[in-house]
Amino acid sequence: MERRNFLRGAVIGTSAAVFGGTLMRGAAYAAPAQNGTSPYGGLLAANANGIMLPAGFTSRVIARSSQTVPGTSYTWHNAPDGGACFADGTGWIYVSNSEVTPGGAGSISFNSSGAITGARRILSNTRNNCAGGATPWGTWLSCEEVSLGFVYETDPKGVNAAVRRDAMGRFKHEAAAADPVRKVIYLTEDESNGCFYRFIPSTWGNLSSGTLQVLKAGTGTSGSFTWANVPDRDGSPTVTRDQVSGAKRFNGGEGCHYASDTVWFTTKGDNRVWQLNLLNSTYELAYDDSLVTGGTAPLTGVDNVTGSSSGDLFVAEDGGNMEICIITPDDIVAPFLRITGQSSSEICGPAFSPDGKRLYFSSQRGTSGSSSGGVTYEVTGPFRTTA
């Protein structure tokens, strides 16, 4: 069991998804994560790339906006944002969005030793492609963070043409996370009064048709939830978030991650990480910077999120002090890395290689503070595989 499964099973007699910790008074919910010591230890002085890392970890720059990716003829896109990794034979591919207009997405291929073997554009002429998500069938969902934006399904290898997936709704899309158990795709909405959605494809593996639903719940930070169909997924004349009475509001939906019957997503407007426990249809806070005690909250400006095989969450900051912070299964939050000298940027697109030994991410605007100054990094080291 991961995270809160054991506690919730003991308290309410249900096997539930995870995030261990102590119980809140009078409720079967665990307290949000608190300050603690990282399992990787403290951060060392900044290295030659300006990154502070724990002992045993190293970094390298794999691409810079407006410059060709080393060993290729592809010019890396501006404002690199959401990303994911895909297995590719004995190697892998890292995909990255471009949060400008015209935007799109690009990808970089690696062989089994981590050497770059190619790079290419996989999506063009779209708008503010911010986050997105990987599918179990090996495609990348690139999301437009604009009013009435679309989701585009792309091929990380750039062989097949990208396809606009109208059935997934038109709204200010941010991130997507696939749930192969329930055969749905979860979607966040980057609005101050946004909603949380799921898309149920008519056929799993084919996103051309299906049903868009919105999460319904009370106004509290924990409780039960249900789903309701969105009548008009085109969002016109009434936007999707205003079509269903009782739809729960979230303040600026950002990153989204699914694992082990649980989906986590972040909201930048209130610096929270939310957790949906899908086996018992309850929700709660996994993290809230205003509820951190015993010192300054280490994680602010919450944005993209990913997870490791150990059950750790890695949450990137948009602002804050340019950190990727870890939230462990025992509810400890602590910095994992910090980028120095780039206070006008944000960290985007954290994703692990398929073997879990390398973490990729970007500084969207780098040292220049401009979209043309983005830098994409790789961090290698002894990432833990068990909590």
Automatic annotation (TrEMBL):
Organism superkingdom: Bacteria
InterPro entries to which the protein is assigned, alphabetical: 6-blade_b-propeller_TolB-like (IPR011042), PhoX (IPR008557), TAT_signal (IPR006311), WD40 (IPR011659)
Gene3D superfamilies recorded: TolB, C-terminal domain
UniProt region (Disordered), positions on chain: 363-387
Residues annotated as signal peptide: none
Biased composition (Low complexity): 363-374
Pfam family, one: PD40
PANTHER family: MEMBRANE PROTEIN, SLR8030 PROTEIN
Protein name: Alkaline phosphatase PhoX
